Amino acid sequence: MVELLIALTVSALLMTACLVALDRSFKSYEATTESASTHVVSRLVMHRVLAMIRQGEEFGPYPVGVLVPTKIDSTSVEFVSLDDPNTGQRQVTRLERQPVSAGATIYQLQFTRTDYVNGTQTAQFSYPLIRNLRDAKFTLEYDIGPVLRRATVDLTIQPDDASTNVTAIGTSLPGQVLRLIASTTPRRLN
After folding, report:
1. If 0-12 CB within 10 Å is exposed, 13-18 middle and 19+ buried, where does residue 155 land?
2. Cα–chain-centroid distance for residue 159?
3. How many structural domains comprise the chain?
4. What is the reported pLDDT for 146?
5. Which residues fall within 8 angstroms of residue 54, CB to CB, at 6 or more apart?
6. Is 58:80 a contact under the CB 8 Å cutoff?
7. Alpha-carbon Rg of the chain, whole angstroms?
8. Does residue 190 form part of some domain?
9. pTM for the full model?
10. Which residues have C-beta within 8 Å of that of residue 173, sequence separation ≥ 6?
């Protein structure tokens, strides 16, 4: 009888250890896939933001003085993404860091496009490009004019897809914070 109790205790300890190891491996897998997903999405967003800036014109916020080269750090950038004098169409795009909720320290990168025809606003739509930002900063370097010479985008992203995923295992493992910094210059076709 004693041998049976000892065997049962050892079996229970082995099963508990196996289940703890299995639980830990599931949570590690979730944290790794969440981090990889955040990396892919963040790099796609950064590529798209740089492409929009590269193709834009008439950037803002404008420097106060236009007679000397100026560098502006901002949480937003605004530019004309389409200007067709033949049809009178004009699209103004704004990328802006916004808090997810009132008083929140987590932000989202908000995309807003406003359409105009002959100076009259015809449409406006807005949606988040990426959420879970710790910070988003735009550094705009203007030449005399003001002509944008270079734009630098600095995004700091915290992976936490599991907190919004209803099928998540509920890991408490934090994902590695991702920081992406990239610069571009607008095209000057004229």
Report:
1. buried
2. 10
3. 1
4. 79
5. 184, 185, 186, 187
6. yes
7. 25
8. no
9. 0.80
10. 27, 28, 30, 31
Burial call 66-98: b when 16+ CB within 10 Å, e when fewer: eeeebebeeebbbbbbbeeeeeeebbbbbbbbb
Report the amino acid identity of residue 64.
Answer: V
Whether 166 is covered by a domain: the verdict is yes
Asked if 156 and 177 count as a contact pair (C-beta separation under 8 A), the reply is yes
CA distance 75 to 102: 17
| pLDDT at 32 > cutoff 90 | no
Short-list 81, 2, 9, CA closest to 49:
81
Grouping H, G, I as helix, E, B as strand and the rest as coil, residue 160 is coil
Residues 150, 181: Cα–Cα separation, whole Å: 13
Burial (CB < 10 A; 0-12, 13-18, 19+), residue 188, is: exposed
Q: Is the pLDDT of residue 132 over 60?
A: yes
DSSP tag of 111: E
Whether 107 contacts 100, CB under 8 Å: yes
What's the gap between Cα 11 and its chain centre? 49
Q: Which domain holds residue 17?
A: 2-184
Which letter, b or e, does each residue of 42-60 get, where b requires 16 or more Cβ atoms within 10 Å of its Cβ? beebbeebbebbebbebbb
Residue 125 in domain: yes
- pLDDT-above-70 percentage for the chain: 91
